[in-house]
Each structure stands twice: as structure tokens, then as C-alpha cells.
Amino acid sequence: MGYVAILLIVFLAFVAISAWPNVGTLPKGEFLTRNEQSPEWHGEQFQNPQPMFSNLRGGIWQIFASRPGEEPDAPVPTVDSSTTYKTPPASGLRVTWFGHSSLLLEIDGTNVVVDPFWSERTSPFPWLGPKRWYPPPVSIEHLPRVDVVVISHDHYDHLDRASVQALYERGARFIVPLGIASHLVGWGIPSDRITQLDWWQEARVGTLTIASVPSRHASGRLSARSDQTLWTGYALIGPRHRVFYSGDTGMNDTFPEVGERYGPFDVGLIEAGQYDAQWPDWHLGPEQAMQVGQEVRARTLIPVHWGLVKLAHHAWTEPPERFLAAARCSHADVLVPEPGQAVEPTTHPVVPRWWPSQAWSTRAQTPIVASKDGSPNDLYAIPACP
């Protein structure tokens, strides 16, 4: 028993040491004071105006089970656009999706990296957790000049320590929701390179205005105290072009106001993957993502938050299939670029289908419909689709 206890202590120490650099630092001092001044701070944490419903039938462990089709069984095609970046976009707006929600936006002369994720796993552990299906299509070293990095929230698939530190070394500035500065400062990013925003607050980067807009989600990084940092979406407003990024969000009532304040948008980058009917308020799902694109008044839509790691039980190709099916009903303009492919949305490029055909569940088979108030008895209505 003594040897078992020693081995257990050694193992737990190994686990703690391997995770500790990535976990981050909870807000305290001036960071906590700033949180407490937010209208979204209630008691000792941030809260959504609309509570979230979840019902984990089978317990938390069912999330980690894997079913056929949920991950690729062949290499996913990618594009290395590093040579493309040598020339600025002719239209003034270019988007590169690297998989999941990691993006490069070249907008009216300002270069923005969104929720960078270049590491191997979405986890505090380098040896455990959801693993990416393919290497980064473009290395951080081969990106063009990076003026600013925007972070939507502090979950591991959106706030990656190694990526943040590498982009800081390239001279980037950071715009983050309230509380996340404490993580960045703990990782060696000077506070004068970080701007924290509450919902509806704005910051300027060159000629670009970046506004934090509400989302319906949660936060936390392997700590007993969750929701100590805020979650957000963004509106990016340039002299000529406008981009909406949803961040991670469930359906909520703020999207029409975002469209009124900051739209219409040339492109909407809407999370459309990693959803489950057991927790429908945490993520949009494809049909509600399409509806959000319409509510914020985005002319072209690109589905994100899919195509890199498995975080939910649906076929890995299901998000674009259902998103395109919804687009046929609403006549929306949709682009689904290959990971790493740089596209200029305002030029309406034709992007051939690149993912394989396989079985997937339709809207009718697996509806994802959010609650309005955290109760399954009061749901949002999704427009009918013949």
C-alpha cells in the first residue's frame, strides 16, 4: 500500500506540473475590481442574462465516447496560403480559416488573428485531451504582420497559451474580454499590450474599430471557480469593410441589436459546430447559426467552430452539410473554405466541396433548439424550411 500511495502521489504531481503552465491565473486585484464593475458580474462570477439549460443523460463521461464518423478516417485537405500573404487582398478583405475557430482577418490594412489555436490538443495537458486532426495549415512564423489578436473566451480551444506567447513575440497587441488579462499577464504578456472589453465596449487598432458584443456561453480552465472571465463575440469595423465573429454562443436576443449597431457585415463568421441536443444553449447548431447570420445582417457567411477537433457527438462533416441545407432555404451566400485557404468574401469566390460524403443527422433527426430562459419548455422558433 505504501508503494501504491507513493506512485499515486508521483502521478498526481506529474499531472499538476504538466497542466499548471496552461491553466492560467484567476482574476484578482485590479482585474477582479474591473470584473466587479461589469453589469454582467453577479455575486462572484459572470452570468448570462438568459440562463442556460443542459441535461447530460448518461453523465459527463458520455461526452468523451466516440462513434463512427465523428472523426475523419482519411487526411483532411489543407492549403498553405503563406505565399498569398505577400500581396495584400485586392478587395481589402481576406479571411483565412485554419480550422475550428482559428482565423486570420486582413481587413482594410489591419491584420487580426482570431482565437489562435496552433497547439496539438485543446487541453491543459500536452499528453491528454482532444487532439487536432491535421497540423496547422500555416505556421505562425509564416503569417503576415499581426497587428492584433482577439480572444472570445478562455476555453482551451480558443485561448491557447503557446499560440498567445508566439504571437506576442511577433509584436501583437491583444483584445480580450474582462478577466482574461490575468491569464495573459501570468504568461508574460505586458499589461500595456492588453485591452480588456466588456460587452458593447470598443477599442481602436489603427483604422479598425473592434467592438465586444454579447454572447451566451461560459468560461473556465480546469478550476473549481468557473465563469471568472467573460465570453464575447466581436464586430470589426474598418473604413470599408465590416466583419462579425460570433465567438462561442447559444441563441440569444442580442443579435438583431448587433446588426442595427454595427451591420450590415460583409462576412459573418458564425460558430456552427460542436453542438448537442443535451446542451442546446451552449452552441448554436447549424440552423440557428444561419438565423444569427441573418439577424446580424451578414451578406456572406462562413461556418466556424468545426473541422479540427472532436468536442461533440455529431459527424465531423455534419456542420457544413446542415449549414448549407439551411442556406438553401434562406438563400444565403455561404463559403466553406478548406482549412488554410485564403478567400476574399466580397468577390464571391466559388469554393468546391472538399469534405467527404458520409452519413449525417438532419435537422429533423437531431434538432438543436435553444431555450429562452434556461427551461426546455420555452424554446426559440427556427424558421420553417421546406
TrEMBL record:
**Any one cellular component term from GO for this entry?**
cytoplasm
Has the keyword Hydrolase been applied to this entry? yes
Q: Which GO terms describe its molecular function?
A: hydrolase activity
The record's section on SMART domains has: Lactamase_B
Keywords for the protein's UniProt record, in alphabetical order:
Hydrolase
Tell me the domain of life.
Bacteria
**What Gene3D superfamilies does UniProt report for this protein, alphabetically?**
Ribonuclease Z/Hydroxyacylglutathione hydrolase-like
Q: Does the keyword Magnesium apply?
A: no
What are the boundaries of the signal sequence? none
Metallo-beta-lactamase domain residues are 99-305
Q: What PANTHER family does UniProt report for this protein, alphabetically?
A: N-ACYL-PHOSPHATIDYLETHANOLAMINE-HYDROLYZING PHOSPHOLIPASE D
Q: What protein name applies here? A: MBL fold metallo-hydrolase
Q: Which organism is it from?
A: Luteibacter pinisoli
